[in-house]
Amino acid sequence: MSDALRPRFWETVPLKDMTRPEWEALCDGCGKCCLNKLEDEDTGQVELTDVACRLLDNGTCRCSKYETRHDFVPECIVLTPKTIAKNFYWLPKTCAYRLLTDGNPLPDWHYLLSGDPDAVHRVGIGMRGRTVSEIEVADDDWEDHIIEEPI
């Protein structure tokens, strides 16, 4: 099968039937899935922090070692059609994988619609320039870095 993306594939192809390039193309590059989260053990509520995985490039909001990230961060979760249900609860509300799983359309700013990969940052959804590396923040201090999800 070709690596080319089918036109408007996200509207017609179920997540489980997407090619790897189509699956990867759904990522809008917001960087929010690479932010460390805190989960309340009693309620299960997940809070977002601005403390980013050590591999997140704060300037691009992309993993600096995407293909080999498990060599550096073994606990990094690989999101696939098979694992999305298990990981759904911590995905950002604006995440294309979450939106499509719920039967919702992609937002107008998503680059697959707008053609502009920087739109996610211009509209305030992306985390470009707004994170601190987990290397710089002690685990005990993460609560001081809880943020509202930019949506």
Would you give an account of this structure?
Helices cover 21% and strands 13% of the residues. It has 151 residues and is of the alpha+beta class. It has one domain (28-147). The strands form two sheets. Strands 1, 2, 5 and 6 form a four-stranded mixed sheet that branches. A two-stranded antiparallel ribbon has the order 3-4. The N and C termini lie far apart (36 Å).
How would you summarize the topology of this molecule?
Blueprint lengths: L8 H4 L7 H6 L9 E5 L6 E7 L3 E2 L4 E2 L5 H4 L11 H4 L8 H6 L9 H4 L4 H4 L9 E2 L12 E2 L4
Parallel strand pairs: 2-5
Antiparallel strand pairs: 1-2, 2-6, 3-4
**Total helix count?**
7
Major beta-sheet overview: 4 strands, mixed
What is the number of strand segments?
A: 6
- Globally, the shape reads globular
**Which stretches are poorly predicted, pLDDT < 50 over at least 5 residues?**
none
Instruction: Using the CA coordinates, give the radius of gyration.
Output: 16 Å
Structural class: alpha+beta
Strand content: 5-15%
Fraction of residues in H or I helices: 10-25%
